[in-house]
Amino acid sequence: xKIETKVVHGGQHPDPVTGSLIPPLYQTSTFAFKxxxxxxxxFKGEEKGYIYTRFGNPTVNLLAEKMAHLEGGDYAxxxxxxxxxxxxxxxxxxxxxSNIISDKIIYGGSYGQFKQELPIVGIDTKFVDTTxxxxxxxxxxxxxxxxxxxxxxxxxxxxxxxxKCAEIAHKHKIPLVVDNTFASPYLQRPIELGAxxxxxxxxxxxxxxxxxIAGVSVVKKEFxxxxxxxxxxxxxxxxxxxxxxILRGLKTLAVRMDRHCENALKVxxxxxxxPMIEKVYYPFLKSHTGYEIARKQMxxxxxxxxFEVKGGREAGKMLMNSVKLCILAVSLGDPDTxxxxxxxxxxxxYSEEECIKVGLTPGFVRLSVGIENIEDIIDDLKQAMNKIxx
Length: 390
Ligand SMILES: Cc1ncc(COP(=O)(O)O)c(C=O)c1O
What we know:
Elements: H1 3-9, H2 36-44, H3 58-71, E1 75-79, H4 82-93, E2 99-103, H5 108-117, E3 124-128, H6 133-139, E4 144-150, H7 162-171, E5 176-179, H8 184-187, E6 197-201, E7 215-219, H9 224-234, H10 240-250, H11 253-272, E8 277-281, H12 291-297, E9 304-309, H13 312-322, E10 327-328, E11 338-340, H14 352-357, E12 364-368, H15 374-389
Helix pairs in contact: 3-10, 4-9, 13-15
This protein binds pyridoxal-5'-phosphate.
């Protein structure tokens, strides 16, 4: 099956009991046992069956199977948020007294988690430029348990070569974990390129409608049992209803992503040709430093663009305050075009100096291009830019 078919059919069958084409929503916290011995056997793992939704739920499990199938992994767990997925994945591979290596530009919430939460459980993070093989290798020591990258990265759209990073990780017998939120499995499948685990904020393109918060972790079999345990014990689980909404959203992933990508490329080209724009960051623009690698590992450029307006932060602020169709809000991957200022919003875990070091300039604006009519999006940006000029 091709990916367009997999997102519709993958991991799903008509309900064996009723024939319902759309999977039933098992909105329950617990499951009744046939008798006391049956309950005991389920807890001991001597018999398969449902116990309690934190341990497993038919709607959530269906989504987990579908995500493992779409990403080409062996096992998946679904979480209440992308941050929950990230934390449980880190704890299922790294241990107290070890360290992980992360690229220095990642989602601000992930950066905050690595700097503030992982040290509490005894895990340190070394932040490096993972596009520099020498710098990456030099950071690996005997206590390094994994390499973490985001590609394209939030918000600078930095592209990291997944294959190359996986080669370096495996040379040192450690796994590579990739945050695939910006691309989705429709545009990029890191496990096929050598990664060992993939995480997602399913809040974004997987859910696709801006109506839920969720996370996904897909792993190879060697990490499955550890991830399953962390998920049960930590309890950052998704609600069955949100899992059901993601199953619904996934059916249209391919058509939505096609439209996001088509619109984003046109907006990126429009911005690049505009005299009031200093610089545009979009992986499928030839001017992007990661263009060649992006073309190799992604099927299309995605829906997110970064740009700097001439006049820096003040000009960017005026633009964000002047848009009418685009909505001034964080998050991405929604049907609506969303605009925001990472340095003061999503990436406020980075200090001003850290922002500069990772290429996040004060005037950098992030645009998550929606699926509206392209002329309406461009007209809105044009009218906002005319206001700055005036
Ligand atoms: C790349 C990336 N990873 C992870 C997250 C965290 O996801 P969530 O907000 O669902 O916890 C985000 C959120 O914006 C993100 O952009």
